[in-house]
Every structure is written in structure tokens, then in C-alpha cells.
Amino acid sequence: MRRYLARRLLLALPLLLGVATLLFLLVEAAPGDPAEVLMSPGMTLEVRSQIRTNLGLDQPLPVRYARWMGSLLGGDLGFSHSYGSPVATVLKRALPNTLLLAGVSLVLAFVLGVGIGVVQAVRQNTMVDSGLNLLVLTFYSLPSFWLGIILILVFSYGAQSLWGWPLHFPASGVTSVDYDLMSLGGRIVDRVRHLVLPATTLVLVMAAGIARYARSGLLEVIRQDYVRAARARGLGRMQVLFRHALPNALLPLITVLGLYLPILFSGAVFVETVFAWPGMGWLMVEAVSSRDYPLILAGSLLFATLVVVGNLLADVLYAWADPRVRYD
Amino acid sequence: MSPLLRVADLTVSFPGSHDDAPVVQGVGLTLEAGETLALVGESGSGKSVTALSLVRLLPGAAVVSPESVVEIAGVLAVGPGASEARGLRGGTVGMVFQESAGALNPVRRVGDQLQEVVARHRGLTGGECQAEVLRLLGEVGLPDPPRVANSYAHQLSGGMRQRALIALALAGDPSLLVADEPTSALDVTVQLRVLELIRDLTRTRRLATLLITHDFSVVAHASDRVAVMYAGRVVEEGSAGSVMRNPHHPYTRALLSALPAGGGPKEPLESMPGRMPAPRERRGGCLFRGRCPIARERCGDEPELEPLGEGRARVRCWFPLDASP
Amino acid sequence: MFRGHASRLLALGGNRLARVGLAGATLALLLAVLAPFLAPHDPTQTDLARHLLPPGLDHLLGTDQLGRDVLSRILFGARVSLTVALLSVVLSVGIGVTLGALGGFFGGWVDGVVMRTVDLVLAVPRLVLLVTVIALLRPSVTAIVLLLALTQWPAPARLIRAEILSLKERDFVEAARALGYSRARILLRHVVPNALSPVLVAATLGVSHTVILEAGLAFLGLGVPLSWGTLLLAGQANLITGAWWLTVFPGAAIALVAIAFNLLGDGLRDALDPRQEGPS
Q1: Cβ pair C255:A142 closer than 8 A
Q2: CA–CA separation, C128 vs A265, rounded Å?
Q3: Are C223 and C144 in contact (CB under 8 A)?
Q4: Are B106 and A243 a contacting pair at CB < 8 A?
Q5: How many CB atoms lie under 10 A from the CB of residue C54?
Q6: What confidence tens digit (pLDDT) does each residue in A103-131 have?
Q7: Which residue in chain B is spatially nearest to A319 when comparing CA positions?
Q8: B120 touches chain A (CB under 8 A)
Q9: Which residues are bridge partners to B89 per DSSP?
Q10: What's the pLDDT score for residue C3?
Q11: Could you tell me how many CB contacts below 8 A there are between chain A and chain C?
């Protein structure tokens, strides 16, 4: 198993280098000049070419690639002109927000999704199963950004101004403006209140997908011989379900979770945009609209790294959870 | 004294999938403590459905007709007013499944799976339970029980897994042992040792053992009596020795002649023309007549399973072979 | 083999939800094709005097901030959204099936190159890649269709490769080889047709996914005019004025089309996958 993991790790590095090269070439191939955003119409040709020289844009492509890759490997991600600070600093501010939102949502979505899948599998081909099926399929088909706006309409604007519900949640940001004046308890409540709507959006959409996998996985396992054998030994229905069927059904879900990371991050881009949540996804959209090339490149690369590392973690987790791999 | 297992008029069908035609029809069996009965037949003969219906483990779509009766150790298991099947499963009735089909849970330790059953049926806990688990593993002839208890299925050999499955069947201290093809996936030498184990356990524990198999060499090694099934019905039943030496039903004879001299599993009946009729094709008369070398007009009526004489085999055939005493 | 598939496809008739999906998908396509005849107003006709009208008799789904009829805009938007989704899915299946079949059938370095490329494309979150590239290229229908296809093909490629690897060892392929048929002929005539049913299912589910994704890109400002996502973007901007109909109706259109294609895809899977059938 160690050798398998070592091999996976060795494959991940060239993969990331490949991704970095691909992204570099994409930005290079794009029409438009990265220097343009730094220039104003009144500048003379001399100043313009000076800016280009400063950015290294007068060099041939291979030289620029080597320089960029060299500084990337040295840990220098470049300078973000739209934020006026190093890219690394900007990313460092945004990353925790995304990890918080994505992490909380992934855990809750997993619990909710597996729970729904189990209920459906236990009640297979009943009204409960088909009802949940339709519900799951509906949420699976909802665009996350639209669901987010609807939640804002109902639980933020509507709850507050139209119906006067006591339970309403903020529609944007990570904290309130008066966060710094709050007590510790007040700060925690404030953070949780801000997390509720964006996390709910992500959880509902992702849980639907996970429930589909959980249901079919469990139905597959229930047909296995060891489940029938466990019943033949007189074990109770719940004991057979939770001790014999569920562990086997959860194993492939670990891999599914790994595959879900790109979907999770895509969802995060939309949800962060809708809820003005200053994370990586929101940052990417901002960077793209202000054509901040170093930030776009580094941000995409960070997302790719998260996906590759996440998949690696899923593999480790799988190998640890499955005795057939663990003791090989 | 009444027999330990009594099956009468067992009829099972799967409505929808086979036009409601029964896959098992009117099967009757009896079995005493300390005795092994082999239920022999090709796949599709209904032998496994018969075994599963004893403890009502058939798939949800199966329907057991109301006149069917199964009585195990004086308790009505199937029939009007039958008791809760779960009490029988794993307790009074131990089931041994085929090892190759993956009857051991791959992600749980053998010891855990055993402990669960010992706790459920014997109410033992903690150290007592642990000790009983190790004792059971020793009883089925597994070397180094603590190591086996701590292993997962994939870490054991095929023969060891089959022994572990037998230990699991014994964990609830059963009176009836039902073994469904317990040796079909094993090497011939391992097969013989597992059959020996089952025979010894039957004797020492005074078990009533129902052995389901498609292989007459298994019958020869491990059973006292044999019942041959064809197309959902028992067609011949008698002591293992006499049926194998002197088969009366043309089907039994064909099965036996397909057996290679050296024993061992073999695709049965490749020499016989035709195939077993599917449930929906079973319409009246002797169901074997389409393949029978001696079929005559009378075979259009259905023969009963009748004894050839006092203490002799029972045969479902109008023209039994070698019928004279 | 294909006759078997055809009869299984007919079994779709027995699945009520799948039939609802088929009807919904067909209806959406019909509405898109017939939009010029069905739309009550010109979708681009502005009328500032009648801006932000709530749903009513004259404008069934209300008007937007420039007084344009929302229902007409959704009907014409269906043309954009469905065209982009269908074209990109067809294109991605074409690329994926070709590359996956080549890799799976020839193995060796061909397979190595295909699979490493698949890993590469899958490593970057699709949306991030799309957002970056479309922003650099400026959005147009052609660019969006191409990019959606270029980031979607790994899924069908993997599916068909896996199917082919398992089919390759099967008897009928061996038999064809023994008869001396060329590898290309075996691939085209025997292997690919047998591997297509999971791709058909994935493509149907992919249409639903792509409709949502294209709307998402447009919602981020990277779409073409009249795309449902572009309508939603305008809707969000007017949310504070209380004009909920600008958000609710285009979103519901996306969701309904996605639900229809998902139902159809699930139905196709149940009909084509014998493993899903009940116990025998």
C-alpha cells in the first residue's frame, strides 16, 4: 500500500506541472495584451514599451515560460495589480474562507446524502423511495446560483421585510460590519449566521448527488451474498444494515467524494459570487473581470492543487478504510 | 418421536417472472438428528429455493403456497400460524453458504462476525463470548484461532474461509445444519476434508444436516440419504448407498453415469439431449419425459413419488429401472 | 445486440417518470424551435413606459427593467441555451468516443497519451478553466460550445474506454479477429456499437448538466445575450426592487429542462442496464 501511495504522489507532481504549463499557454494564446490593463490611453509609446520590458513581455515565449516556472517553483506567485499586493497575500486571505464554506458543506452534504440514500434503499420501491427520488432529482437539477438567490429572497429579504419572521439570515459577506465590536460569543453566532445560507445552498445541491450514489451503492451491496448470509444468521434488520451493508456501501463513496471536489469548487464559485463570500471562487471571478493575469494563473493553479491533493487524500482514506487494500 | 425436520407439500413460485408457475412443487422431506440428507439436482432444479424457504430467506417476490408446511425441532417454521423466522435463523438452523460467493463480509474481521452471532443467539458477552469464538474456530479445525479471528476474509485460503463459514453456522448452537454447495469452489483434496468435517460435526453434535449439491461425489462422501430433484420435484429418494448403486429413476441414472470415475465436480448431463423445462414450460405429466430414453405414452400422466417396497427407495416414475427386489 | 437495446429502449414506456422526462425534453425543444411563432412579443423590443411590470394578462411573466416581455425572452432564450447544450454535448461525445475508443482498443502509448490528457483536463476544476478562458477569449456561441466540449470529453472517453477494455476479451471480438478482420473494422463494427449505451445515458444526463453550466457562465457575465443565465444576471441586479419574476421564471426554466433531461437519462439507464432489473 505504501508503494501504491508513493506512486500516486509521484504521479501528482508531473500532473501539476502539466496543469501549470497548460494554464500558462492558455493565457499566452488568449487575444489581448496582459500589459494593456496597466496602460492608459495618454501614455507615449516609450512608456508603453518600458512597461512591457518591466513585465518581461519583450522576451520570447520559452524565456518567459522558464522565468515564470522558475519563480513559481521558488514560491513567487507574482504581483496582483488589481489588489496592489503580492498574489500570495491575496490568496492567503481568500483560501480560509473557501475551505470553511466548502469543508462545512461537504461534511453536512455527506451526512444528509447518505442518510437519504439509506432511507431510500431500506424503503426501496415504496412511496417513500419514489417521493425522495423526485425530491433528490429536483435538487440535483437546480442551478446552485439560482437556489442561492431564491434562499436570499425567502430567508433574507422576504423573511425580514415581507413576513417579519424572527429567523432571517444575512445575504452577503462572512461577518457583519460591526463584527469587531462583538463579544466572543456574539462573533461566533455572527459567523454561523453568515454561513447558513451559502452552506445550505451547497449542501442541498451536493447532498442530492451523494444521495443518488448512496442509494444505488447500498442497493448493490444489499444484493451481495454476505448480506443474505448475515440475515441467515438471525441478525436484526438494523444490525444487518448498519454493520454489514453500510460499511461496504460507504467505501466507494470515499472515491466519489474525491471526484466531487471539482464540483464542490465549481459550486463554491457560484455560491461565493451570489453571497459575496470573499473566498477563492469569488476572487477568481473578480480577477477575471479585472484581467489580473498573475492572480488568474495562481488562483487556477491553487484550485488544481486542491483537487489533486483532495483526490490523493481520498485514495489514502480509501486505502486506510478498506482492509483488502490496507493489508496488501 | 417426530423427525427433526419435516417438510410437506412445499410449493414456491415467483409470480410475474415465470407466469406464476411454481419453481418448487409439492416437496416433502424428513430428517432425523445425527443424519445427513443430500438434496441433489442441477441448477434450476429448485434445491436451493427449497433450502432457503426453510428459514424464509427467499427474495421478496417469492410466494410460498398456503398448504406448505415446514417443521423444525417441533416448531412450525412455514405454514399456518408459523412462528417468527428470525428466531430460527442462525439459532436452531445454521446455514452454510458457498465460500466463493463471498458469504463472509470482506470488510469485517472473522472474529467480529462470529462474536455478533454468539452474542445474538447465546447471550454471551465480553470474555466468555471471546472464548466461545476461539473455541468454535478450533472446533472446525482451524489452526491458530486467535490469528484467524483477527483476520479478514481475503487473508484466508478458500478452505479456511469455508471452515470459518461453518463455524459461523455453528455459533448459534443449531440442531439443523443447512449447507448450500459448501464445497463446490474448493480443490478436490480440500473438498474432502471439509466434507469430513461436516460428517464429524453431524455425528458429534447430533445435527440434522441437509446438504445441497449438484455433485454425486459429495453425496457419496458425506450423506446417509439422498433426494434427487428435477424441475422442482423430488424424483427419487432413498439411502445414499442403494440409490448410487442401483438408481431407479432414469434421471438419477443419467446423473450418475455423467459422473467421472475419479469423482470431482463436472458439468452434469452433457451427454443427455435437451434441457430441463423452465417453470413456465412445466405442463402436466412426467417432466422428464422429453429427455427420457424410455418414455412412453403413459408418461403424459404425472407419476407419484411411491416406494418400491417396504424400506426401499421412493421413485417418481411409471417405469422404474431394476424395480424387482 | 442492437435489437436487444431497442427492446430495452421501448421498456422506457413502462417507466412513468422517464416518460415525463421524455415529454418534458421534447416540449422544451418544440418551444425553442417554435419560439418565433409562440412568443407574444418581440424579445428585444424595449418599452421604458412599461418596465418592471409584475406578471399580468398582457405580460404573462412580467417585464424586465427595459420593459421587455419576460416570457418571450425565456422562449427565445431556450434556443440559445438548448443549442449550446446540445451542440457541445454532441461534440464532446464525438471527441470522447473517438479518443477513448482509440486508447482502449490500441492500448500502449496511445492509451497512455489519452489517459494522461484526461487526467490533465480533470485536474483543473472545469468551471475555473472555463471562466478563465472564456473571459480571455470574450464570449460567443462558438467559443462557449467549443470550450464546453473541450472540457467535457474526458467523461465519455473514460466510459467508452472502460467498456472497450472489458469487451475486448469477449468471444465475439476474438472470433472476429480469428476471421482475419482488420483492427479498424473490428473496432468500428463490433466494439464501439456495443459500448455505446452507457455513453448515451451519460450524454443525456450531460445535456442537463450543460444547460446549468452554460447558464452559470452567463450568470458570471460570460454568456451570450438572451441566454437564460444572462436573464438571471439581470434578474439578480433588480432583486432589491422586488422584481422577483425576473429571477424566479428564468431559473425555473433552467431547472425544469434539467429535471426533464435527468429523468430521461435515469430512465435510459434503467432501461439499458440489465443489472438494475429485479431479482430473478
Answers
A1: yes
A2: 8
A3: yes
A4: no
A5: 12
A6: 999 999 999 999 999 999 888 888 998 89
A7: B107
A8: yes
A9: B93
A10: 44
A11: 132
Alpha carbon distance B258, B274 (integer Å)? 15
Q: Are A150 and A289 in contact (CB under 8 A)?
A: no
Among chain A residues, the shortest Cα distance to C136 is held by A30
> What does the alpha-carbon distance between residue B82 and residue B92 come to, in Å, rounded to a whole number?
15
B174 touches chain A (CB under 8 A): no
Which residue is associated with the grid cell 448515451?
C200
- Site from C122, C127, C211 to mutate, A interface, most A CB atoms within 10 angstroms: C127
Touching subunits of C (3+ CB pairs, under 8 Å) are A, B
**CA–CA distance, A199 with A148 (Å, rounded to integer):** 10
Chain-centroid distance of CA A267 in Å reads 6
Q: Which chains touch B (3 or more CB pairs under 8 A)?
A: A, C
| Least reliable range by pLDDT among A198-202, B249-253, B306-310, C157-161 | B306-310
pTM: 0.81
State how far the Cα of A49 lies from the Cα of A33, in Å rounded to an integer: 12
What is the distance between the alpha carbons of residues C14 and C271, in angstroms, rounded to a whole number?
A: 9
Rounded to 5 degrees, what are φ and ψ at B150?
-90, 5
**pLDDT computed for residue B100 by the predictor:** 63
pLDDT attached to residue A324: 80
Tell me, yes or no, if C245 comes closer than 8 A to chain A by beta carbon.
no
Residue pLDDT, tens place only, A240-298: 888 889 988 888 888 888 878 888 888 889 999 999 999 999 999 999 888 888 898 89
Q: Which residues sit opposite B93 in a β-bridge?
A: B89, B176
Nearest CA of chain A to the CA of B97: how many Å?
7
B186 φ, ψ to 5°?
A: -95, 160
d(CA A269, CA A258): 18
Query: Cβ(A15)–Cβ(A284) under 8 Å?
Result: no
Residue type for B22, please? P
Interface contact flag, C216 A270, Cβ < 8 Å: yes
Distance CA A166, CA A179 (A): 21
Which one-letter amino acid corresponds to residue C170?
R
Residue C200 to residue C220: CA distance in whole angstroms: 30
Q: Give the span between the Cα atoms of C241 and C236, in whole angstroms.
A: 10
Determine the residue among A24, A130, A145, A283 to mutate to test chain C binding: the one whose Cβ has the most chain C Cβ atoms within 10 Å.
Answer: A145
Determine contact: A124 vs chain B, CB below 8 A: no
Q: Please tell me whether residue B315 adopts helix, strand or coil conformation.
A: strand
Which residue is closest to B152 within chain A, CA to CA? Answer: A323
Helix, strand counts (H, E) of chain A: 13, 2
Residue of A nearest to C121 (CA): A19
SS3 of C179, please?
coil
* Antiparallel, parallel or unpaired: β B93-96 and B233-239: unpaired
CA atoms of A244 and A242, how far apart (whole Å):
6
DSSP letter, residue A243: I
Q: A133 contacts in C (CB within 8 Å)?
A: 17
How far does the CA of residue A198 sit from the closest CA of chain C (Å)? 16
Rg value, chain A, Cα: 25
